[in-house]
Specification:
The complex is a heterodimer of chains A (about 130) and B (about 140). In chain A, a hairpin with a 2-residue loop joins β4 and β5. Chain A is built from 3 helices and 6 strands, in the order βαααβββββ. Chain A has about 130 residues and is an alpha+beta fold. Chain B starts with 17 loop residues before the first strand and ends in a 5-residue tail after the last strand. Chain B contains 2 helices and 6 strands. In chain B, a hairpin with a 2-residue loop joins β4 and β5. Chain B is an alpha+beta fold. Helices cover about 15% and strands about 35% of the residues of chain B. Chain B has a single domain, classed as Thiol Ester Dehydrase, Chain A (Roll), CATH 3.10.129.10. Classes of the chains: A alpha+beta (about 130), B alpha+beta (about 140).
Chain lengths: ~130, ~140
């Protein structure tokens, strides 16, 4: 991996059923990820995906691109909600490129969008080369 | 009701130890999104030992956050996740026994919301640091 290398974007489809599965697996029962009324009551546009589910997809993409390289850092801001419709799915697209290779560590700048809107702020992963 | 400013710097008790089981890891990994459209996918369905997802420590950090919210009588549904950063000392493995200790790192109010910075140190059974999970929680207030 060299600075400037771009990885092939990966698109993930999320449904309400995925939110239920993620809530169970992660132990996060926050109803803003399940219940339209509760989500709207706190000013959200609808049921949204867990931010950590979206960051988890970014981690899944990094694992794909790097064939499971050890991750030493991962993080982002959650800047825009991923609204998941009651029926059908919404697509989350994860792109990434190598920013820096130094001391055996590869910094990958990520770009995560939903309907062409960036949903994560400055998402970044550092993996061991 | 704004969150009490005196919380800054406070360390909450460690969460009870949680063993990383193959079943939990498999459920967590398979819950990370539905079908993909694009190039080959990663080791999501591989052996559990090799596939503890990097976001898995959120399970520990979430335990710690819930204890913190309960102690401060903050409703989970009023919390929006603003930011999350993980720094890993080593990969998490199946069989690890982990617990998280949350410290309130910062607190500020913007437009009626509390912006709560937390740091959860995730330690193994030997007390060695495995992962530091930093979260920014946005508490949207409202009548409580």
């Amino acid at each position: 991996m060299m600075p400037g290398d771009a990885f092939d974007p990966i698109t993930y489809a999320l449904t309400r059923a995925d939110l239920v599965a993620y809530a169970e697996a992660s132990g996060d029962p926050n109803p803003i990820h399940q219940d339209e009324d509760v989500a709207r009551s706190v000013g959200l546009p609808g049921v949204i995906a867990h931010g950590m589910l979206t960051l988890g997809l970014a981690g899944r993409a990094v694992a794909s691109w790097t064939e499971g390289a050890e991750v030493v850092e991962l993080g982002c801001k959650f800047t825009n909600p991923v609204v998941v419709p009651a029926s059908g799915s919404v697509e989350v697209v994860v792109s990434g490129s190598v920013k820096k290779v130094e001391d055996g560590l590869v910094t990958i700048a990520l770009d995560v969008t939903c309907n062409d809107v960036k949903v994560l702020g400055m998402p970044k992963a550092v993996v061991r080369a | 009701m704004p969150v009490d400013q005196s919380l800054v710097g406070r360390e909450f008790p460690p969460t009870s130890q949680r063993t990383v089981t193959p079943d939990e890891v498999a459920a967590f990994a398979s819950a990370l999104g539905g079908p993909i459209h694009g190039p080959v996918d990663g080791p999501v369905d591989g052996p559990a030992e090799a596939t503890v997802p990097p976001t898995y420590p959120i399970v520990l950090a979430f335990d710690a956050m819930n204890a913190f919210l309960a102690a401060e009588q903050i409703d989970l549904f009023r919390i929006i996740h603003g930011e999350q950063r993980f720094a890993y000392e080593r990969p998490i493995r199946v069989g690890d026994r982990l617990s998280a200790t949350l410290t309130v790192a910062s607190l500020r109010q913007i437009g009626g919301a509390d912006i709560i910075g937390t740091t959860s140190a995730i330690l193994d059974a030997d007390g060695a640091l495995v992962c530091t999970a930093k979260a920014t929680l946005v508490h949207t207030g409202g009548p409580t």
